[in-house]
Amino acid sequence: MNNESSLKDSIYNSVLEDILSHKYRPNQILNEKTLAEKYECSKTPVREALLSLCNDNVLRNIPRYGYEVVRLTIEDMRVMLQFRYILESGFLMDHYDKFSDSQIDQLTAINEKCNAADNDVWGLWAYNSDFHLKMISFCNNSYALEELQKCMSRLKRAYAQFYWDKWDAESLPLDTRNHSQIIQCIKDKNLEGLLSHLKNDLNDFSSF
Prior knowledge:
Layout: H1 2-20, E1 29-30, H2 32-39, H3 43-55, E2 59-62, E3 66-69, H4 74-95, H5 101-116, H6 121-137, H7 142-163, H8 179-188, H9 191-205
Antiparallel strand pairs: 1-3, 2-3
Helix pairs in contact: 1-3, 2-3, 4-7, 4-9, 5-6, 5-8, 6-7, 8-9
């Protein structure tokens, strides 16, 4: 059972990576038989992986036809960014003035990694995600953190989808210039500035 579960997870991650790298494009149909041949396994772990991707809204199950790669729209992106701002700003308003020096130091360390990763688009994406997830983790609400994590994962797919045909993988734009100002506003207990820079940071995501 553990081996089957591990294989299912491996296939899940491999298919997701192929979607992010645009090997599988939006609206493309995947089928169990082809993937089972590719991974040299039975259809069972493939089916389980594909159904998990459906549960995560990465794929759409079309009975007797296959699994369609979900196309994310500009409106999907707008809604997700709106959700992120409401969630992050709401929790920060209640907790930003309680952040400890140690917590601020952790945000600063992540931001330094962001600044050093400007030629590594997916490394930069990971550090950017870590920055926002770390901020919300300091607000001590595990449910909010889990929902933000899901949203960030879906936004990663949107980012890949909208940018891949415009720039090559080495030059995809992702701006984290507002992180330093966010940290400074937390230090200064400047709520108005914090929310303004948070909004600017999220707006930078969709400026393409």
